[in-house]
Design a protein that fits this description.
It contains one helix and 24 strands. It is globular. The strands form six sheets. Strands 7-8-9-10-24-20-19-14-17 form a nine-stranded antiparallel sheet, with no helix packed on it. A six-stranded antiparallel sheet has the order 13-22-21-18-15-16, with no helix packed on it. The mean pLDDT is 96. The two termini are 31 Å apart.
């Protein structure tokens, strides 16, 4: 099922499948800013990552004395149907709660609320996690929105840059070859404000940046200033990713947790977590994305 949010600037479509933003149309020029999930390239729009972000060693974990195997990257929330809580012209709330399908992959009782709210040229997406279990619950969480390129037929991917709002020397955590932390680090640049897009940037998969001082990361069109701007302030990790070759989309991904370590423990309580909630406790995090002209 799909729901629409709308104001004088934007029309936003959200699907209950995965609680994903499926479309953001800018009314002044008709530009579609969300990747349209071409399955031949990447079949997602803007998945949410829960109850963990990244990969587990060999897709395994142990929790509550049980072994869980065959677990996909980024958890299960992105692949499940979320239920409607409420809908108005500018706000939508969806929820996912534990059920037999989730307990077979992660043995905790929980509630995950996805709140989408339009405010001018900005879409706020808040994820609220509630521990409904009888014991403390560790979890990981992240956002993974894909933004379509180019903004129009007169431009190509090389006309865009990823832009910080302050000078950065982006330090990245190594995750090759299996998407797990390998104990190595590298710099994506030194004393830079922009990362140019080209067909080499994502040749080896994503880049996980840590310790950024910028408040915003933007996908900006050179010469016009048109941009998609994500507020990354307070997120400890920010990933950028696309498929190898000339980018048809770029994901800007603020995360609050990390993949597991290569060769590390599969014990759930030893995995890097966004938070550990006591029974009955809840916690929220928000990604605010602005579509600017």
């Amino acid at each position: 099922m799909e729901f629409t949010l709308e104001n004088e600037i934007l029309t936003v479509t959200v699907t209950t499948s995965g609680a994903q933003v499926k479309s953001v149309l800018r009314k002044c020029d008709g530009v579609e800013h969300i990747w349209q999930a071409d399955p031949a390239v990447w079949g997602q729009h803007a998945p949410i990552l829960f109850p963990y972000a990244g990969r587990l060693p060999e897709g395994k974990m142990t929790a509550k004395g049980r072994l869980f195997e065959g677990l996909a990257a980024h958890g299960f929330a992105r692949d499940m149907e979320h239920a409607l809580v409420s809908h108005s012209r500018d706000t939508l709330i969806l929820e996912l709660t534990d059920r037999p399908e989730t307990l077979a992959k992660w043995p905790y009782r929980f509630r995950l609320l996805s709140t989408f709210r339009l405010e001018g040229h900005t879409l706020h997406h808040t994820l609220t996690v509630e521990n409904r279990d009888e014991e403390p619950m560790a979890y990981g969480i992240g956002f993974h929105p894909g933004f379509a390129l180019p903004f129009d037929k007169n431009h190509s991917a090389s006309d865009y840059v990823l832009q910080f709002d302050s000078l950065e020397s982006p330090l990245c955590l190594g995750t090759l070859p299996h998407g797990l932390l390998n104990g190595k680090c590298y710099y994506l640049g030194k004393n830079i404000r922009e990362i140019p897009l080209d067909d080499r940037l994502f040749a080896n998969d994503s880049h996980c940046m840590v310790g950024l001082s910028s408040k915003y990361l933007s996908l900006t069109e050179k010469g016009t200033g048109r941009s998609v701007r994500c507020k990354i302030e307070k997120f400890p990790y920010v990933l950028i990713w696309s498929m190898p070759g000339e980018p048809k989309f770029v994901c800007m991904e603020p995360w609050e947790s990390l993949p597991s370590q290569e060769g590390g423990s599969i014990d759930w309580n030893e995995k890097p977590a966004a938070a550990i909630l006591a029974p009955g406790e809840s916690r929220s995090t928000t990604l605010s994305t602005s579509f600017l002209r």
